[in-house]
Amino acid sequence: MKQITLFLSLFAFALSVTAQPVFTKADTLRGSLNENRDWFDIQKYTIEVAPNIETKTIQAVVLWDAKTINKSNLIQIDLQEPLIIDKVIMISDHLKKMDTLDFTRDGNTALAKPKTLNKIGENFQLVISYHGTPREAIRPPWDGGWIWKKDANGNPWVSVACQGLGASVWYPCKDLQSDEPDNGAIIKITLPKKQNLIAIANGKKQWDENLNSDTQHFTWQVTNPINNYNIIPYIGDYIGWSDTYKGLKGNLDIHYWALRQDSAKARNQFTQVPQMIKAFEYWFGPYPFYEDGFQMIQSPHLGMEHQSAIAYGNKFANGYLGRDLSGSGWGLKWDFIIVHESGHEWFANNITTKDIADMWVHEGFTNYSETLFTEFYYGKEAGNEYSIGSRRTIKNDRPIIGHYGVNEEGSGDMYAKAGSMIHNIRHAINNDSLFRSILIGLNKDFYHQTVTTQQVENYISIKSGINFSKVFDQYLRTIQIPTFAYSYDAKEKILTYQWKTCVNGFNMPLHFTYLGTQFDFLPTDYQPQKRLIKVDHFDASAFGETIRHQYYVQIGLEQ
Ligand SMILES: [Zn+2]
Known about the structure:
- The chain is an alpha+beta fold.
- The chain has 3 domains: 1-31 and 313-479, Neutral Protease Domain 2 (Neutral Protease, domain 2, Orthogonal Bundle); 35-236, tricorn interacting facor f3 domain (Immunoglobulin-like, Sandwich), CATH 2.60.40; 483-558.
- Helices cover 25% and strands 31% of the residues.
- The chain contains 12 helices and 28 strands.
- The protein has helices spanning 3-16, 25-31, 263-269, 272-284, 336-343, 360-378, 380-390, 416-429, 432-445, 453-464, 469-477, 540-550; strands spanning 40-52, 57-68, 75-78, 84-92, 97-100, 102-106, 109-113, 123-132, 145-150, 156-161, 185-192, 198-200, 204-209, 215-222, 234-236, 238-247, 250-259, 294-298, 303-304, 310-312, 351-353, 449-451, 483-489, 494-500, 510-514, 517-521, 529-532, 554-558.
- The strands form 7 sheets. An 8-stranded mixed β-sheet has the order 5-4-8-2-1-11-14-13, with no helix packed on it.
- A hairpin with a 4-residue loop joins β1 and β2.
- The two termini are 43 Å apart.
- Zinc ion is lined by residues 1, 340, 344, 363, 366.
């Protein structure tokens, strides 16, 4: 979702190039697991929200189910201004006691003071009532907030986008990726009946209640752990239809939702959904949320990976808003938003990073899922061409990994450059079934977990039997592209080669075929090496291009 922000970040980069980033107390409060956050583990969020579409305001109550896992302290509640907290109540399970808590507000957080000590291992509930005018999104999904749009027929079309900005833009939570509600969330949306709208959210629909003749409640539940920013309501004049996909874990319930006026186009375009699931179950293993089903929902913005409720706004055309980001032609064969946002169900929603500084794990693998989808349907060379084409969006402006503990993402290169690094690693492993088993293994061994980049890096090194730590350092932590430097002595038929412009000890294996001869440069090879080449008509520059065809590296032909 960051393609356009690349341009914005270039501008920001121009402004910030001389200065080290400055982080505020608010950044630290938001991005770190401090002592007012680390003593409890969120089990479940129950969100009851009544949006007033005319006034663009909300009235809501959110209930946290949480477990005490450390000595209890103050409790930090993240809720962004200008929303107003009315009341905080704590219910301790062991005391069967209900306390109204005092709290102080500090910008986008509040600190509440429990009246009794919670015992380690015991559960408590926090009930937070709040109201107000939530921040409105200007350019969703790249900035965040509530989206109050109208469809072409003049009906309200409302949703939220909040990745990066954080779910606390609309509901009080522990706004940190490292603590997902283990048992999921319930989202209950109340609307005036006279508007005749439908409200959709993550997971499966539980029940509609008609408490009185004026209002209607739509209740949705997701039972699996979920990222805060993925919990999203969609309100509009929707038409829905269903399907069952026979997948690796049995029957998967699929629901599609489109605006009434677009439902014919959507029925046609959404036939790509089962194709996507087939390709990704092949590469990554079972869809990670069978219990909650899968939904593709037309959204009033381009798209987002909302778990089991993917937001779709790509205008029912292939490509990325009709364009091929790779320039290879293959990106016009399929719908970018269906493929990319759904790819996140495996990398972002199933495997989530604890800190958004490590977001390459979400965007790098999902960028690479586009290559794998292309390969699954159009063959290996098509995938290769797509991956090579995607390199043109790489900026090498700053490292892919951002600063920890301050809610900061790294460079937009977390998309195509991290995807290219994964492509490199695949070719360096030189065994596609092993590579695929690592992708499946990541999704199995880190199933529904939050992770650090180090865990993912180590996993790939251990399972492949190749120490890729220097490769990760090179591509994730520097902006230098390693150069495969070489020269060729035509008379003696001797090739001399080594890595340059790289971290110390960079040693990525290279395997490739040139003019029918297999070349294998192993990690131990890269002191300046001399190698006798026994191919006729050796063309040193074509030799370099052959390497570049598989690996995102620079080629340095030295005379
Ligand atoms: Zn993405």
